[in-house]
Specification:
This protein is α+β, with helices and mostly antiparallel strands. The protein is about 55% helix and about 15% strand. The strands form three sheets. It has a seven-stranded mixed β-sheet, with helices on both faces. A two-stranded antiparallel sheet has the order 1-2. This is 9730_t:CDS:1.
């Protein structure tokens, strides 16, 4: 039953939503001279008036309303010009609908002779047919077809985004607007709730940092500004190559910070910094050393395009102009040019811009999905067990805090879990904050080193070198897609 609403403009009585919508579209004919009436113009008016009601944005609904409105004008109007123009538009509207349907069906009949179809691996955990012949035929049609195709594309993108965020098993203690999800997870996904709490405990215990580095950091971070130069040069005891390389990264980062702080008033640097100044002077420093010491990844900084996004869009629709995410930093594995991590800095360190922060939070989650999606797409015949092991990372800097989120496959889709967080210091009094920053870096590096082995196993399974006896990525995606379709039909 339609919901009653107040129609305060015309009368004090209650009308239904359907009646209200009919009155809204009838206004098109009231506002314009009959000679200015136009089919495309009516559809454009309909789209504009229903932009906040996506469930109403449908070509058939608009066409039916146009036909009904024209029929009412012919039946009830006393104006000869209005009746004449309404009759004229009725014929044009019928021809327009018939031509559009015939043209699309003709193109579909022809396309069936082609030996291939475009198939796009589309998140949320699904295989969908995209960029088909019908869509391309409509894009080559008249203004009415092109206008509705663009509307439908926007609606599909919005629906996909809503699905991604609704299905997201995301929980964080730091990112505004997402904190409350942890209570829901404890009921719906107890295993993930335990994982999150485990990461929180692990950070406190510094489990990612080797014991030799914990000892070294406690010694160095307890020093005064004047003692630092001597203490930072202390060597590790009984350390392996990996531990010594981590020390080089940490030592370089601390020397850089000490250089900025040393001559500053009260050994404190100003927080009144722009986003890019903050990136250049503090955020980028440890990652710069990671790149050159370990030689596993390359970090590209400031408005870097994600290539995986472009590649996936080309598969979806070769004719469409491609767009992409621009990230503050993008980590690319040197061995195979695989995108592995992104960094987004949500403003400078002085105060939070909440809309910017929440926008970046959504953006980083979608970036993580794209990286995971692009990798799984290459190994559809690998086992689901192997597919659960690859990890991808997004980092978001909110005011002075950096949050590391780990994205991976989960039975019902994917999960994005905050695994580490830390704060950037701005004075020597808070230099101890680097302990948690280095714990974050160590966790990131450990998983970076492990990932190529994981990817190699997936590649071997996909190519048949390793026999797969359990459910594959392709089969799992089909089951997730069926679940989504069933849920959307309810």
């Amino acid at each position: 039953m339609d919901e009653p609403v107040e129609d305060g403009e015309n009368n004090p009585f209650l009308v239904t939503r359907t009646q209200e919508n009919n009155q809204m579209t009838d206004k098109y004919f009231d506002l314009k001279n009959p000679m200015e009436w136009d089919i495309v113009g009516f559809h454009r008016f309909f789209i504009e008036k229903n932009k906040d009601r996506p469930e109403k944005l449908d070509y058939k609904t608009a066409a039916d309303k146009l036909t009904r409105s024209l029929r009412d004008i012919v039946s009830t109007s006393a104006n000869a010009d209005m009746i004449r123009q309404a009759l004229n538009l009725q014929e044009k509207a019928k021809v327009s609908v018939d031509f559009s349907c015939t043209y699309v069906m003709l193109q579909l009949d022809r396309s069936s002779l082609r030996p291939w179809s475009y198939q796009r691996f589309s998140w949320f955990g699904s295989l969908q047919l995209r960029g088909n012949s019908a869509d391309r035929a409509r894009r080559k049609g008249g203004p009415l077809d092109k206008m509705w195709v663009s509307v439908e594309v926007e609606l599909k993108e919005k629906k996909l985004t809503d699905l991604q965020l609704h299905g997201l098993l995301q929980a964080t203690q730091e990112i505004p607007g997402l904190k409350s999800l942890i209570s829901n997870l404890e009921v719906q996904h107890e295993d993930i709730a335990k994982e999150i709490k485990g990461h929180s405990c692990d950070q406190v215990k510094l489990v990612s940092l080797p014991a030799s580095l914990v000892t070294w950091l406690r010694f160095v971070l307890a020093s005064t500004v004047d003692e630092f130069d001597e203490k930072v040069n202390m060597q590790l005891k009984d350390a392996n190559e990996y531990e010594n390389d981590l020390r080089i990264v940490f030592r370089g980062t601390l020397i850089d910070f000490h250089t900025m702080i040393r001559r500053a008033k009260s050994h404190t640097i100003e927080r009144h910094a722009s986003e890019r100044k903050f990136i250049l002077e503090q955020v980028s420093i440890p990652f710069k050393y990671i790149e050159y010491v370990f030689e596993l990844v390359t970090f590209n900084w400031v408005e870097k395009n994600m290539m995986m996004t472009k590649a996936l869009q080309f598969v979806e629709d070769p004719d469409k102009k491609m767009t992409t995410y621009k990230v503050d930093a993008l980590a690319i594995v040197k061995e195979n040019r695989r995108e592995f991590a992104t960094i987004e800095v949500s403003g400078g360190p002085i105060e939070q811009d909440r809309p910017h922060t929440l926008g970046d939070t959504k953006k980083t989650l979608l970036e993580g999905c794209e990286m995971l999606q692009g990798t799984l797409q290459q190994y559809l015949d690998a086992s689901l067990d192997a597919a659960k092991k690859p990890k991808f990372y997004t980092m978001q800097v909110i005011v002075d805090r950096i949050v590391l989120v780990e994205i991976s496959v989960h039975e019902s889709g994917f999960k994005a879990v905050e695994v580490r967080s830390a704060r950037w210091p701005f004075s020597w009094n808070s230099v101890a904050e680097y302990m948690h920053i280095f714990e974050l870096i160590a966790y990131f590096m450990k998983n970076l080193r492990d990932q190529e082995k994981v990817i190699n196993v997936m590649a071997s399974e996909h190519r048949g070198i390793i026999e797969v006896k359990s459910i594959t990525v392709r089969q799992w995606l089909k089951s997730v897609q069926d679940t989504l379709n069933n849920n959307s039909a309810i």
